[in-house]
Amino acid sequence: MGQSSSALTLQREEIEEIQSMSTFSETQINKLYTRFKQLDKDNSGTISIEEITAIPELAMNPLANRIVAVFDSENRSEISFKQFVAALSVFSRGAKRDEKLQC
């Protein structure tokens, strides 16, 4: 995002942009941002592959590499908040079947 991950909230424009590209409400986006900041251990504003694979539930998953690939759509070995939301949106109830199959 345009700000460091230590920022407490997203800007209104950022929320609106994220809502337009996802299935999430403003409240859900803010909750996801809080979780994203918790995962961003080095406060870089992105989540590295190492930070993602350090999540115990993911580390034990045999599909961890595929899950990381879905999140890291730009193949940069780091995940921005927008990528994080976009990937989670595909797995949400509100996502269309075609979107889910594209992953």
Structural class: mainly alpha
Spans of at least 5 consecutive residues whose pLDDT stays below 50 are: 1-6
The shape, in one word, is globular
Radius of gyration: 13 Å
Topology:
Blueprint: H1 12-20, H2 26-39, E1 47-48, H3 49-53, H4 56-59, H5 64-71, E2 78-79, H6 81-91, H7 97-101
List keywords for this structure.
single chain, 103 residues, mainly alpha, two-stranded antiparallel sheet, 7 helices, 4% strand, globular, disordered N terminus
Short description:
The protein is mainly α and 103 residues long.
Question: How is this structure best described in words?
Answer:
The radius of gyration is 13 Å and the shape is globular. The longest helix is centred in the N-terminal third of the chain and has 14 residues, at 26-39. Strands 1-2 form a two-stranded antiparallel sheet. The protein is mainly alpha-helical and 103 residues long. 15% of the residues are buried. It starts with 11 loop residues before the first helix and ends with a helix. The protein has seven helices and two strands.
